[in-house]
Design brief:
Largest sheet: 4 strands, parallel
Number of strands: 12
Radius of gyration: 23 Å
CATH class of the largest domain: Alpha Beta
Bound molecules: zinc ion
């Protein structure tokens, strides 16, 4: 009895699915329409690309044209990339002084979502950071508003919700899918946030050094007593940089340096000689070579948990 009911209900639901499909196809063919093109969404960095893909999935076409070897915060897009942004159905910006190029380029204001605007009153302003260069973009400065907003995972959730609002605008009929996807992503970010809050507590204010001034929001959210130098993971520190580090360590007695990428061997050995161990926390602003945003953030958090058990 039970089995036959199950069979009947399967047949009924199959029919509902099939009949629905036939009806949709019939409607489409009588209206003479072809399947609607996916809205094109341009993004300012890889975290927003990941958020959009997680939230919009197959409903959207996400594009992030920055080259792999550039820091998207300082990247200067060429004419082709700028025209892609100008023609997009939706533009997801990081805000917080990210994408310096937008100061000089006009983008359609109605298409832009500034994903950090909900917490702009608590932006951190960096003063006295020295101009330096890394990557092919030439010199840059970290003076002004700190922009690595998403490694405060609580802020990342706010950015994900802004992405949801943007995608809902270009896919107004898919609210249920979009909301469910957003909830799933927000839950993952929430788990990372809780783990970092716990390890931040265990660190209990002990001094830590960062290789580059990109960890401001992370340090604030998780109560980390952090001071930065201006190093690049792939460049060996110079004698001058080592002297500056030693001077910093005299008053800020750190045992760990947080690197934004895996350090070159020479850098890793040099910090060992001044009593520092290294741990990597990759902000993942650009497309990762391996894994994705979530797997990299999980590895980052695990590294900090192992350093401060
Ligand atoms: Zn820099």
């Amino acid at each position: 009895m039970k089995i036959s009911l199950l069979v009947i209900s399967s047949i009924v639901s199959l029919c509902l699915v099939q009949c629905g499909r036939v009806r949709d196809e019939a409607a489409a063919s009588t209206a003479g329409t072809t399947p609607r093109a996916k809205p094109v969404i341009l993004v300012a960095n890889y975290p927003l690309k990941y958020f959009a893909q997680q939230i919009g999935g197959e409903l959207i076409d996400v594009r992030f044209p920055a080259p792999a070897n550039e820091d998207p915060a300082f990247w200067q897009p060429d004419d082709n990339a700028i025209s892609q942004f100008q023609k997009a159905d939706l533009i997801l910006m990081n805000g917080a002084s990210y994408s310096k190029w937008t100061d000089k380029v006009t983008l359609p204001a109605s298409k832009i979502v500034d994903t950090s605007s909900s917490f702009q009153s608590t932006f951190i302003e960096e003063k006295g950071a020295i101009t330096h260069s890394h990557g092919p973009g030439g010199e840059h400065s970290h003076n002004g508003i700190a922009f690595t907003t998403w490694i405060d995972f609580y802020q990342a959730i706010a950015q994900a919700k802004a992405v949801r609002a943007g995608i809902s605008r270009v896919r107004p009929d898919d609210a249920r899918t979009i909301d469910a996807n957003t909830e799933r992503l927000a839950a993952e970010l929430g788990r990372l946030d809780n783990r970092m809050l716990a390890v931040g507590k265990r660190m209990n204010g002990q001094p830590v050094v960062a290789s580059h001034p990109v960890f401001q929001y992370w340090a604030r959210r998780y109560g980390i007593n952090l001071k930065s130098v201006l190093w690049e993971p792939d460049e060996a520190p110079t004698d001058k940089q080592m002297e500056e580090l030693k001077a910093l360590l005299a008053t800020h007695k750190a045992k760990w340096m947080v690197w934004e990428g895996v350090p070159a061997k020479e850098g890793a050995e040099k910090i060992k000689r001044v009593g520092l161990q290294g741990v990597v926390f990759d902000p993942c602003a650009n497309n990762p070579e391996k894994g994705d945003f979530l797997s990299i953030m999980k590895a980052n958090v695990e590294g900090i948990e192992n350093a401060f058990p």
